[in-house]
């Protein structure tokens, strides 16, 4: 990525802007106004008008619900587009205003219906609920028993009567004294004896609607009005849809044109300008630099100076600069001399700004990032950006995420049935949505589902059933055996725990090796890389090699030596040898002879190097052990998901124990051998007659909903746990992020992936 500077007179600035915009190559730098004699430029004439029209167009698109996907190709705008835009704006705004007014009236009608509904339920004419001088009347919603109790206990109530329908209660009460002539019986805020009596109980008061009609007639009239208003809204919506069909392409095309015009017009805001000259800087891919220079030369001739100020290369701790970058080409110098008489003072100011501090770099910004990954790994860029976009001078970890996350996810679910569904869901998301984020998630789901299928085949599992393994691999079953969900196969759990730990060691080795390489090439040098990253590598491998050695075997679980040496796999691995170097004599070690082994020396060397490089990090000396143990969560998810699928199948199919001691599911395609003992009948085999039919139907529901639940929980558990291992344990060793996206001038930022 090259940093360039373009310097010229203000007269050629519009042409330069148009040329750069059409090329769509230069990521412009923002001038901060710090150079003496130079200010940020002003928008080109017409920018305000174009911006105002762009806002109008986008507002109309929002009203119509238009999206970019509905654009029907590009074309040339007609000459009278402004008049057409005004006509469309007037029609749409009038309809939108009408729709707003109708919706407001509809809301008021709904409120009136809600207010009068309780009175219609009572069936009492509204004129009977107000206007009395000797009694109080109140209508509301509450418990009739509580209302009766409260009125009975009220000393100010001489007599009362209630009328109820459902929870709606109408109360007529005569006070012991005289009625307050000011109080209105229909006003729930009035000071009356019923209100006083009901203090302390839950009772919702309703105001009596102001109408002479019966409640049912009033509700009927309001319902008719509601229907009219809803019909009017439908008519307006239909008219707006017609406008969308007729004018949608025009508006989208106009938005694209106005966006370009506004970008061009506002570009000088990023430039440094004086009275007669301007300086623009930006980043361009180095292999496109000559194309940019040629295009600018063809556009404005010799009245422009183009310099390559800096060429950024991959560097974690600061950009490197190539030695052959110089202050402009000979052609540029000749151009400068040709125009010196016209703007000598301005050129002196420019040269002062450009050479400030002896550096060619003027606007001090970082180069933008272009994530360039293989197409298969592209969807995983979204997962990286969820943490932060990589800096230009930083390794993009997308490819490593692509290689490890589906592996972890597939191992944790490992079921062909679920994997197929993940692939189908991912394909739908990838192809069926315009959103780059959803589409990328679909791509991730496809890869995760593919690895789930792979591990499902190795486990011989299809929606928790193991018949697939025998169908593919014969009598021996699946090569990975069992997940260890039954007491007879519990040894498999220990094997998968070791596999998870091994994956963790591998993953963290990759992370610290990447950190080691970055430090060697860009920043700390070889010694710095050894003390910073090499120390952790030594401790990581030293600790975990020692765990699998016989030293202190009495405090280590037996399964680490037996899981791959016969129980359950007979691979002949019973741990590493002692790898002792020498033995410390008993009189020196005090506690008896102590064998100094290679893993022990690796850990000691790692601690020593860490103390030399950064003593503060010694506080995290246990990290290589703790972070690897964190990968055991993969085994936990493997067992949890397998166990849930097992339970769903058990409830549905039931299970039986054969004479050989096996416990298969009693699935419809299984022939139950004679002499087998039923352990649980299952919903598919439960009862007789109508009970059997009902149980079978319920079993189908349990089977479908149960596996859907396992499928969804697989996303939330395996997905989140896998991402956590990537973000926390892996990224934390070498990745910082914080880069900015490469957005060349000419790129429509409103439609960018961000």
Summarize the structure.
This protein has 754 residues and is an alpha+beta fold. It has helices spanning 13-23, 47-64, 81-122, 144-153, 193-197, 215-266, 289-300, 330-338, 344-354, 381-387, 398-413, 416-432, 436-459, 467-473, 491-521, 525-547, 559-562, 586-589, 598-613, 623-629, 633-653, 689-730; strands spanning 2-9, 27-28, 39-40, 136-142, 157-165, 168-175, 203-206, 272-273, 277-284, 304-311, 580-584, 594-597, 655-657, 677-680.
Mean pLDDT: 80
Low-confidence stretches: 182-191, 315-324, 326-361, 749-754
Please give the share of residues in helix: 40-55%
Query: How many beta-strand runs?
Result: 14
Transmembrane segments: 399-425, 437-459, 493-514, 526-547, 588-613, 634-656, 689-715
Keywords: Coiled coil, Ion transport, Membrane, Transmembrane, Transmembrane helix, Transport
Coiled coil: 78-112, 219-246
Biased composition (Basic and acidic residues): 313-326
